[in-house]
Amino acid sequence: MSNPVHLRVVLGGDDARKLSLMSGIPASVDQLVHEIKTAVSEINAEFMRITTLPLQAKFLGEVDKYTPNLMKFFSGRGGAAGKKTRLLMAPTTKSEDIEEGLCTSRSLCLSQ
User: Fold this and answer.
1) pLDDT (tens digit, 9 = 90+) per residue, 77-111?
2) Taking CA atoms, which of 43, 82, 102, 106 is between 20 and 30 Å from 1?
3) Are 81 and 111 in contact (CB under 8 A)?
4) What is the Cα–Cα distance from 103 to 52, expressed in whole angstroms?
5) pLDDT-based confidence at 11, cuts 50/70/90?
6) DSSP structural state of residue 1
7) For 101, which DSSP code?
8) Which range, 34-38, 50-54, 99-103, is most confident?
9) How do the residues of the chain divide into helix, strand and coil, expressed in percent and rounded to 5?
10) Residue-range domain boundaries for the chain
């Protein structure tokens, strides 16, 4: 039996999630893609069952609510993580058209 594997799966430009495969890496890419889609669907369905709200919309709504405080927190970080975070947050200081929530969610992914 294979050892469990923990992956960070990028589902889109702004969507990365952790995934644990308890039976190890599948034999083919197609099987891996299927397992990822199944896991994401199960998480979304379970959240909907418990809360009757879609997970992504609920999460993004909460991020929007806390965005000003999160931006202050991320801008105050030091070291290599702070440097990366400042690069992600730089577009928000240059243009009002850039969505602050997008930069904040990217910084949240970086901080994990």
Assistant:
1) 777 777 777 777 666 555 554 555 555 555 555 55
2) 43
3) yes
4) 27
5) low
6) -
7) H
8) 50-54
9) 65, 15, 25
10) 5-51, 55-110
